[in-house]
């Protein structure tokens, strides 16, 4: 059976699962195009594999279906805010890690008085299906998690007071606060961890895995990830800067 790399080259197209509702990693711009930090990285990988960043098909995925799409062969790779966890590593392989993202925080109205995770026990908090931290929310913090499939549904529920807050990745919630409609909201509870993020690949696909990692390392050495941080309004990360420096040193 041919590996993914061989199939991608025969097809002349890399098929990648990305977010289209997740600023700054993958989202729709004013023209309706899917753009973002991880979308640019996926296009860079396509260029390295096939000679052009246009030889790519972007497939919108959500947290609850991205791994299923990968294992079922509907996509070749995931570049969709995929946190690296031991549980997921039983099912898929991860590319080299390229982001260390702040974990979940809680968005709530400015008048909210909660400021600690423990204070959310027994309270209804909106979330997203498939998020890696959902189990911790319910079992450790005792939150009554009201999980939605998409972010728009969760944001709408928060504004409709169906939950007292929305637990989600801090980077995205910080971006949401920049929108005028959200001026009366705040980050009520700060992240408790930083989570490495990577791309997702099918297990044991060694040749493809090596090719994708090689492309990511090249992008890091060329400072592309730092440039994409700037392009998509992300605060510059010491983690990404250190990886770029290490990639340059390894290259030389």
UniProtKB/TrEMBL annotation:
Mind telling me which Pfam families this protein's record contains? Answer: SBP_bac_3 (PF00497)
Q: Which UniProt keywords apply?
A: Signal, Transport
> Solute-binding protein family 3/N-terminal domain: from which residue to which, for each copy?
13-235
Q: Does the keyword Transport apply?
A: yes
Organism in which the protein naturally occurs: Bradyrhizobium barranii subsp. barranii
Gene Ontology terms: biological process: amino acid transport
Q: Which GO terms describe its cellular component?
A: extracellular region; outer membrane-bounded periplasmic space
Q: Which protein, by its recorded name, is this?
A: Transporter substrate-binding domain-containing protein
Q: Does the keyword Transport apply?
A: yes
Q: Which family does it belong to?
A: Belongs to the bacterial solute-binding protein 3 family.
SUPFAM superfamilies noted in UniProt: Periplasmic binding protein-like II
């Amino acid at each position: 059976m041919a590996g993914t790399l061989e199939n991608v080259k025969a097809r002349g197209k890399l098929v990648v699962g990305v977010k289209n509702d997740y600023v700054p990693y993958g989202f729709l711009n004013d023209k309706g195009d899917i753009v973002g930090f991880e979308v640019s990285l996926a296009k860079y990988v396509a260029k390295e594999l096939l000679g052009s960043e246009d030889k790519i098909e972007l497939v919108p995925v959500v947290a609850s279906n991205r791994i299923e799409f990968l294992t079922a062969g509907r996509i070749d790779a995931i570049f969709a805010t995929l946190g690296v966890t031991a549980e997921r590593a039983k099912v898929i392989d991860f590319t080299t890690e390229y982001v260390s993202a702040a974990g979940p925080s809680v968005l709530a109205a400015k008048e909210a008085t909660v400021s600690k995770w423990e204070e959310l026990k027994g309270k209804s908090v909106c979330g997203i299906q498939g998020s890696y931290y959902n189990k911790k929310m319910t079992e450790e913090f005792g939150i009554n998690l009201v999980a939605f499939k998409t972010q728009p549904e969760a944001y709408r529920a928060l504004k409709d007071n169906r939950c007292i807050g929305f637990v989600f990745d801090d980077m995205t919630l910080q971006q949401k606060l920049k929108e005028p409609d959200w001026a009366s909201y705040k980050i009520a509870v700060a992240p408790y961890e930083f989570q490495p993020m990577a791309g997702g690949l099918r297990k044991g696909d060694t040749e493809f895995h090596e090719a994708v990692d090689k492309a990511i390392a090249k992008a890091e050495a060329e400072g592309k990830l730092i440039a994409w941080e700037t392009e998509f309004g992300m605060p510059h990360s010491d983690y990404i800067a250190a990886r770029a420096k290490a990639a340059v040193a390894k290259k030389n």
